[in-house]
Amino acid sequence: MSHCLIVGMTESGKTSLAKQLSARYKSQGIGVLVLDPMHDPGWTSDYQTDNQYEFMDVFFNSRSCMAFIDEAGESVGQYDKLMTKTATKSRHWGHSVTYISQRGTMINRTVRDQCRHLFLFASALEDCKVYAREFNKPELVEAANFAPGEFFKVGRFVPAQRMKLF
Amino acid sequence: MAIKIEKPEPIAAEPNSALADVDALAGSLASEQPEVSEHTVAIEMQKTEQRKAQFADLKDTSGSSFDPGIHVTDSNGDPVTTSSGKLRKRPGRKAGGDAARQPSHIVTPGTPGTSTQNSGQDVSFKRRATGIHAARMLTSVSVMIGGEEWKPIKNAQYGVDEQEGLNEAFADYFEAKEMEDIPPGMVLTMVMLSYAGPRFAMPKTQSRVGKLKDWFASKYFNYKVKKSGGKVQQLKEKAEPPAQSETK
């Protein structure tokens, strides 16, 4: 249950954070799998693809990897049962998954509930209210006024921390 | 379960701690990585193998055998077939079944996206080949319907080669539009045209089509007369042949 959700507007810094995390994991010897429909060459990974079925094949035949799913609003979405398994079942494979999306509400509730950590970058006020309710942290509405690079690190059972990426 | 969200207490940002934070974040998140539940993985693998064994003898109308990695299954894990009796495939490019499950599918660090980028030339070749095939199909259907006059001209003296021109144009189009297969609608249209087209030149079909055409023309004429209202007489007079009006 150590999945993460990184959300924020375009250019807010969410993918930069994810890429930095992927590089750190890689340097620690942890396998990194990336599903990125935009073919971004900036990832540091062991495996990267734009095809979710290929990704799922590799994902469920690997062990103890950190996986990044960019544009999760499209690939996971609201109704994709197969991709939902990356949140509900992958812990048995020792995987941790980081979902990156512009809006958390584009991803289905089951996946959001499985995420123990939230990295909240600048977002619309209405979206911030949703995260404030779901994580029971009223201060998250402040993210509506964040500058690019600023974000909240939120855990289910720990206080929110405000941080700067750049 | 209402919570107050109007007046949150501001939290001060921690400036210039970005890189250190990412390191710490990665460390803390990695420390929370779950353990592999070998028994669950084994059970899942067993289920997949059982499913494969269960449907090992199953072959669809095209002779393909069932593979859970390639074919769609319903909520019970049973294979789903199309209306033509074929096993319904998962959308998107296929990973190639069992071969894809080997660790060798993980690309080396620092070369992300290799698996998709290396196949670019093959894909381009396939698209061009499909375009040429479509052009040849078009000319053969045209000759079948229109006769010898529609045969592509090739004149070395003037440097004319219509078939080659069509091939190139279709290949360029298919490559530009990233089409790897001829659209099924296009194939269906061509097959229907090649079947029906030549038959319209046959005598019985021509006479029947002529009758049908006349019937539609008379219906259309009646409709126009009705619609014109006050001009009915005028139109009728115009429509009547001059010989009849003289006899009256």
Description:
The complex is a heterodimer of chains A (166) and B (248). Chain A is of the alpha/beta class. Chain A has an eight-stranded mixed sheet with strand order 3-2-4-5-1-6-7-8, with helices on both faces. Chain A is globular, with a radius of gyration of 15 Å. Chain B has 248 residues and is an all-alpha fold. Chain B is built from nine helices and two strands; from the N terminus they run H-H-H-H-E-E-H-H-H-H-H. A two-stranded antiparallel ribbon of chain B has the order 1-2. The termini of chain B are far apart. Chains A and B meet through helix 1, strand 2, strand 3, helix 2 and helix 6 of A and helix 1, helix 2 and helix 3 of B.
- Secondary-structure element order of chain B, as H and E? HHHHEEHHHHH
**Number of separate strands of chain A:** 8
Largest interface chains and counts: A-B, 65 and 53 residues
Distance between the termini of chain A: 29 Å
Structural class of chain B: mainly alpha
Please render the helix and strand layout as text.
The complex is a heterodimer of chains A (166) and B (248).
Chain A: E1 3-7, H1 14-27, E2 31-35, E3 47-49, H2 52-59, E4 65-69, H3 72-75, H4 81-88, E5 96-101, H5 109-114, E6 115-120, H6 125-134, E7 150-155, E8 161-164
Parallel strand pairs in A: 1-5, 1-6, 2-3, 2-4, 4-5
Antiparallel strand pairs in A: 6-7, 7-8
Chain B: H1 18-31, H2 38-54, H3 114-117, H4 120-146, E1 154-155, E2 160-161, H5 162-176, H6 184-196, H7 203-228, H8 232-239, H9 242-247
Helix pairs in contact in B: 4-5, 4-6
Structure in a nutshell:
Chain A is 30% helix and 24% strand.
Question: What tags apply to this protein structure?
Answer:
heterodimer, A: 166 residues, alpha/beta, eight-stranded mixed β-sheet, globular, B: 248 residues, mainly alpha, two-stranded antiparallel sheet
